[in-house]
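thread from #wetlab-drylab

HS: before we spend reagent money on co-crystallization trials with magnesium ion, can we at least see a predicted complex? here's what I'd submit
DV: go for it
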Amino acid sequence: MPTDPQRPIPVWRNVKTLGIVAQVVFVAVLLAALAILWTNVTSALARSDLPANFGWLDARAGIPISERPIPYTADDPYWRALVIGFLNTLKIALIGVVLATLLGVAVGVSRLSGNWLLRQIAGAYVELLRNTPLAVQIIFWYTAAIATLPPTISAPIRLPGGIYFSNKGLAFPFLYPGFAFQQWLPWILAAVVLAAVVHRLRRRAIRASERPGRAWPATLAAFVLVTGVGYVVASAGDDRPADLAIEFTADRGRGLSFLDADGDGEHDRDEARYGFVPVTVRVAEGALTARSQNLVEQRTVKPSVVRYAVLEDGEYDAVDARLLDEDQAERFDLHWVEKPISALVYEDRNGDGAWQAGEEVDANGEGFRNVQTALVVEGFRRDLVSDRDGLIRIPGFDPVASLEAEDATGGSGVGSVGASGPVGLFGTPGDDDEPTLDATVEIRPSGALVYSTPTVPVSNYEGGFRFTASYLALLLALVIYTATFIAEIVRAGILAVPKGQTEASKALGLSGAQTFGLVIFPQAVRIILPPMISQFLNLTKNSSLAPLAAYAEIFAISTIVANQTGASVPVIIMIILSYLVISWFFALVLNIVNARMAIVER
Amino acid sequence: MSATEAVPRVAAHAPEGGERIITIDGLNKWFGDFHVLKDIDLSVNRGEVVVVIGPSGSGKSTLIRCVNRLEEHQEGVITVDGTPLTDDVRNIDLIRRETGMVFQQFNLFPHITVMENITLAPIRVRKWKKSKAEERAMYFLEKVGIPEQAHKYPGQLSGGQQQRVAIARALTMEPKVMLFDEPTSALDPEVIGEVLQVMVTLAKEGMTMVVVTHEMGFAREVGDRVIFMDAGQIVEVGTPEHFFENPQEERTRSFLSKIL
Amino acid sequence: MQMIPSRPPPPGERGLVAWARRNLFSGPVNGVTSVVVGTLVLLAAWNLLGWVTGGASWQPLWNNLKLLAVYRYPADLLWRPVLAAGTLLMLTGLSAGLARHAGKGRIIGGVYWWFTGLALALTAIAIPFWESVRVAWVAASLLALGGYAAGRLAPGLVRIQTWAWAVGLPAAVVLVYGLGGDGPMEVVRTVEWGGFLLTLVLASVGITVAFPLGILLALGRQSRLPAIKGFSIGYIELIRGAPLITWLFIASLMVPLLLDVSPDSIPALTRAMVAVTLFASAYMAENVRGGLQSIPNGQREAARALGLSGWQTTRLIVLPQALRAVIPAIVGQAIGLFKDTSLVFIVGLFDFFEIGRRVIPSQPESLLYPGGVLLEISLFMAVVYWFFTYRMSIASRQLEKELGVGER
Ligand SMILES: Nc1ncnc2c1ncn2[C@@H]1O[C@H](COP(=O)(O)OP(=O)(O)O)[C@@H](O)[C@H]1O
Ligand SMILES: [Mg+2]
């Protein structure tokens, strides 16, 4: 080390020690500041006596969450609510990333399209939506979904394939593990192994043939074949558990599939529920009751509407709607808007026996509310699948006999006693005098998978798979917003590939598709992917705007938890950690991608 | 200092009698495990022009960058104008003030004008008044032949002009030694001459110069000594004539045959 | 040899039909695309127009414009924010005018004209309602236009430009906040602030304070001293790891705890500003770092070789170049921050967004409309935000282009 032999260099002038001195000072100041803040926090916490540890995690949360990828009730502890929040963040992020990529790539490519119109529209889309706050977009879509889509119990939009769409969200058929699922698993495993082997062999064969070729069709075929054969073989036997039983309370339209360990046919507390059991429910004769009301739907008031639970064609032999109250029956008539789901109550003023516009409101333009009606259904049968928790629900039928009791007492309501009053319409289970509903439940066979279709028994969907309106609105906003950024990245990435590359490949005789697929795309991807991944991260972080759409992801749930428990410091630590984990994950992906993509350069 | 030496050390000392302005004794430097400079002994007298040649990667740049502490060395003693180059910030500043450097890539500051490029250091480091700095700057701009470019931005000048500005910028600090690191290598062939001409004039006016260059014409015209480096060590030292007429080492001959 | 005279191109190369054939119907796929897309767009536009002019209920929005603009800021003091806006426009105008005079500043000039027009048009809406605004509006217009004219005509003012900003900025703040007493300059506490005023305050304070902090953090991240470098990296990555809304939430809970004072003693605006500033500084640091990395090492070496100290090198050589290179990125960040201020609803502030989202829809008159009025309001807010951000994003792109070919 060269030093001046005569004099030692003062510490503050020595380049070697200067840095150390600076760092020591810096760290000292930093530590002092942190120490002050730390004592402040501890003393403030001590005074306010808010929890500063994680003990509350096991306490009952009491937070109702409608969006739950794993079983959860309000009785579950806080930690479980937080886990659900984290899973919900992943749920919206993963699907959002895929959709945003698809839309973004499409728009980005459109911006370079030869079609002038497409180019302009793609450009307008990007410029308009990229420069508007995401928060505004979220409330726009959320309001649009809630305000302009039909409420479920009215007439959901029914799309082909058993899909329902309404302001309660989107419900569609879904496959769940059936009785023989366990038997099928080894086949899937075998299929994966076989597919890997086939893939390798195909690759080797392609290399030996010295021609371009693709290995994945054969791989896919092998996988599909083995899983398919396995499915048929596994589903052949009857694998339903021996003690599987159904408990069904017809009057409430509710049932439960469970493992009846003691064989008494009733569900006891310690008996395990058994989900995804396909059943057929039959009701020989029952009545759906409803009162007329003024509904706000698609931002307008619809007066005098009567709505019954949704029955699909083929689920019943005959239906017949009637007015229950005698006075009301004299005054009003019913007009089907959509048989047998919704009807209008009207006053047949011109006596032509049919509804004319304006007859559903009185002279003041007010609708007729609280007109009591019933839909008598004969021969109802519905195939459904109990949910993950074994729950079975059908519309709340009343025994038709109870309607007659009602009729007999007259509709005056005065002096009607006990069960024969209007209360009786809604059934009082356990009352022996009460006429009961004639309903049966029968378990259907199932293979390795069961096909569960959504139904709309009361106010919300049952069965199938459901995305809530909150989820859809948030997803839509995130996708549309993020796609604008991805589109710009894609466009810039494609433009960044020098024109000479296209010219060179054209000169080599490659076709347009080959030029794009073999030359342009591989180069553009290298430019596009890294910024695109950071957009994925942005989308995930932006999902924290969920409270605006009433979606329960990690941040929304954390704020509720912090409010309820007062444990702000622990909750904050958990929020930060959750997002850091997500950020690190994306950073890891980015590093892997970068390492894979690096073009070898000198 | 390493005591065990397999090869004889070639010391490149200046002739006795002159005033030593740079002395380097037993200089060793490593980049990590890579030994770039090996046992360099070198001195330069006031007014001397030393030309350093050698293949790419032999450590020429590193050597002259050690002199003004752009690179830190690990062993050996460097003294510039009597000031030892130690870890003392004051010594480092003093030496940098007394040595001017011209880079291969010019390294003009693109965000300020030529005039501001030149006067920046005199005003901030030498604490001159602005008027004095500008006057000296004009003097040197005239000397390098481009006074009319004073108020342009570097990006508006040609390569040769930029390098001449860089020389003027270094000279305005009135250094005792000028270090040149391949000043003409990044230039188009037709402008090399104008830069070399400035350097020749400078040499003839008695400036002490250490020049890394492969322009052997320059070496022959004004060089007092030529040093040939290879693989981090000084291989051969001599007058320009010595190198042209009978270089001793095989490595020197092979190198010269490639560049001449 | 005879020169061949130029001839016009064969027919079908020019004109509207040819243009359409080339750009819209150049093949079957293209033709179908054009027809389908065109029909869809026309349909959508027609429906939207129909809804905006017919189905939508705009009345609650028009009746509550004051809330959207300033929330509970006293109506008889409205002249103060108007005058403050005039002051800021005057300063921008002065700088734009001076730059224009020097033959530069096309971009800042464009921005200045746009925002002057926008601000004067928007504040003009208030004139019929509040007497106090009328005089202030005229004064603000004169200030704004006068600033530009002065800069354009009196280039000598370039010497006082920095001073003008140094005096004008605090003056604008004082105008909005007040001085004290009961007179015209009585203090308007920040809980009364809201609406677009608050949005602007948050965004401008955030980006202004974050600027120096971001530079320090960026320099720290490039430092060779491990402690400083480590701290900077840790801070930047921690802040960037979690979204702004979480930091706002955290600040609203933690700032009183960290200072060990009662939660009521720190206004929500202060907490929001802390969060916004700390958040923006981390992103600012990354932007500046991009600029620092773009400066070749030779610049630093040349400066050191000339004898400049490390700090001088950074301040005089590296930073000016680095910052210039990242101006577009910083403008982009400012746009982002402006949009992100909409998240302060989480700390209970009533910024432009929150007024539109919660305050107006819960007014009694809004409740009369079935299904609420949020759809109309969110559309309106989107348009307002867009008018501000879009002009800035154009400026950012222009800067990028100009700097790309710049004086290097
Ligand atoms: N900062 C550095 N870190 C590591 N190695 C370096 C560095 N600078 C130069 N080198 C290596 O040191 C050797 C000498 O470099 P240099 O002095 O630039 O050679 P010359 O100027 O003779 O071409 C080269 O092999 C080069 O790769
Ligand atoms: Mg070199």
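DV: Residues B 60-61, 182 surround magnesium ion (ligand 2) (CB under 6 Å).
HS: ok that's useful, forwarding to the group
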